[in-house]
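To: structure desk
From: M.T.
Subject: fold request, one chain
Message: Could you run this one when you get a chance? Sequence is below, nothing fancy, just the single chain.
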Amino acid sequence: MKDLSWLTAQPIAHRGYHDMNHAIWENTLSAFARAAENGFAIECDLQYTADSVPVVFHDDDMLRLCGIKGDIREKTAGELGLVAIGGTADKVPTLGQLLRLVKGRVPIILELKGRKGDDDGFADAVLETLENYQGHVALMSFDHWLLKDLKAQHPPYPLGLTAGGNQPEQFFVHEEAMQLGLDFISYFYGDLPNSFIDKERSLGRAVITWTVRDHAAAGHTFKYADQMTFEGFDPKERLIA
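Reply: Done. Structure tokens follow.
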């Protein structure tokens, strides 16, 4: 079992340490810089552009974050680098820009947002971008086919399943994914505790949660998991209290 103590050592800022998209927007270089400056690990989402570049963006459509309609995957990285996020000075960043900003200061947890039948080369492009990066990185996804693609490349980074649910039929699907030899799980905190997570933790797998938005949810997380992915509050206040 890999040593993932670094993955659970500090709270993980969901899409960076943003302010719920008031002035500092999610998945922007500003949010990532703020997370690193405050000593929080960074969780963020990766999409795949028309010119095969991993970019940091959550939605398939650009309307919510950029105010324009359009499929993120139909744009090039160059085009997205000109598009403002939330009307701010921040533009859609590439994975390479994120890595150059963070420079190993805090761990980065990358969630690949898949689209079945349209992900050829996605895993390879992410791993190629990460090559020679000096810092802790973990990769995860809801999408089992992307996890298979990543695992097939024997990456030096821990791989994780992003998941939720508290029904036996859901656990069966999750267990199927874990048979790939995954290293950790990112799970919806509201579906804890459950037998699937209890079993995986007993086997020594690290479990982080998503997405914790207050101190009560943080308290719940630490009863049943190892670390939280948070947004909308300062978890250091809880650690001090």
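Reply (cont.): The chain has two domains: 8-157, 161-232. Let me know if you need anything else for the meeting.
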